[in-house]
Specification:
This protein folds into 2 domains: 58 residues; 209 residues, no CATH class. It is α+β, with helices and mostly antiparallel strands. It is built from 7 helices and 9 strands, in the order H-H-H-H-E-H-E-E-H-E-E-E-H-E-E-E. 33% of the residues lie in helices and 31% in strands.
Length: 290
């Protein structure tokens, strides 16, 4: 739209200069030419040519200035995947150090796939207990208000870190940005992370912008099952980040995070090792005040 407007303005400018050029007269009413020397005629011709050249040059400069301004304004909006990811990093990494308040609206845990128990059905209750313990809305996270930097670092993505994104274009499957009424909506989809026994925040793809589940958190929350589980791996997939940003200030006003984490582990039950696979969806939603 800005490009279209700049073309219209340039056309109006060009038309206005053209209309100021020569005023035609009816040959029947034109005054007769008085005695004019060849030198006078040549002088007038030079003056007309100089005036025309000045008008043309001024017209060109005005048109170029208008088009340059329009292009400059338009270029401020990130377009490529690399530009969008870089802009996302810039605005999301301001949230913890510069925002006034972050409100965590909710954290929702859901089951995202079939529970696979391998060859031992006797593990069904243990598996169901682990699933049940992690499902539904996290009551502690509902409407959590973060005013201090310590709370922001602890609970806003990435949890426990002083930063919120280390994504690069190579970490991302897709990145889009749309604008409406001075507000950007950015959607980022990180690449999936294969199962790993070394999952930590800040590495892989999803872990560079989301609060992934680390191996230590699995064992710390396993309860009585901690003594029988081993070979733990976690993978992350279907990640999606959606943020809204004030285009004028670069301040993020809302952020929503979702990803699926897959859990692989082996349960050592006497002489039988049972492989367990289960998937969870995690969604976190935040409002940011400045």
């Amino acid at each position: 739209m800005r490009t279209f407007i700049s073309i219209i303005i340039a056309a109006v400018i060009a038309s206005s200069f053209c209309s100021c050029g020569v005023k035609s007269e009816d040959p029947s009413t034109a005054a007769p030419i008085s005695d004019t020397t060849a030198e006078d005629t040549e002088t007038m011709s030079v003056i007309d040519e100089s005036t025309e050249n000045n008008l043309t040059e001024q017209q060109t400069q005005e048109t170029q200035a208008t088009e340059t301004e329009a292009v400059t304004d338009e270029d401020l909006t990130p377009k490529t995947k690399a530009e969008i990811v870089a802009y996302f990093n810039e605005v999301i990494n301001k949230v913890k150090p510069e925002s006034k308040t972050i409100i965590q609206n909710y954290t929702l845990n859901t089951q995202a796939g079939e529970l696979e128990l391998g060859k031992a059905k006797s593990l069904q209750k243990l598996a169901n207990d682990l699933v049940e313990a992690n499902m539904g809305y996290n009551k502690k996270a509902a409407n959590r208000v973060m005013n201090t930097r310590a709370d922001k670092d602890a609970y806003f993505a990435v949890e426990g870190m002083s930063w919120s994104s280390k994504l690069t274009a190579d970490d991302v499957k897709s990145a889009s940005l749309s604008e409406k009424d001075g507000v950007y909506t950015i959607t980022i989809q990180p690449k999936d992370d294969e199962p790993s026994p070394n999952t930590v925040k800040g590495y892989g793809h999803v872990g560079k912008a989301m609060s992934v589940v680390e191996i230590s958190s699995i064992t710390d929350n396993a309860g009585l099952a901690k003594s029988i589980i081993k070979n733990i791996k976690t993978g992350h997939r279907s990640g999606k980040i959606v943020v809204t940003v004030d285009a004028a200030t670069g301040n993020v006003s809302h952020a929503n995070y979702y990803f699926i984490w897959d859990l692989w582990l082996t349960a050592d039950i006497k002489i039988l090792d049972v492989d367990v696979t289960v998937a969870f969806g995690i969604e976190q939603d935040f409002d940011i005040k400045w």
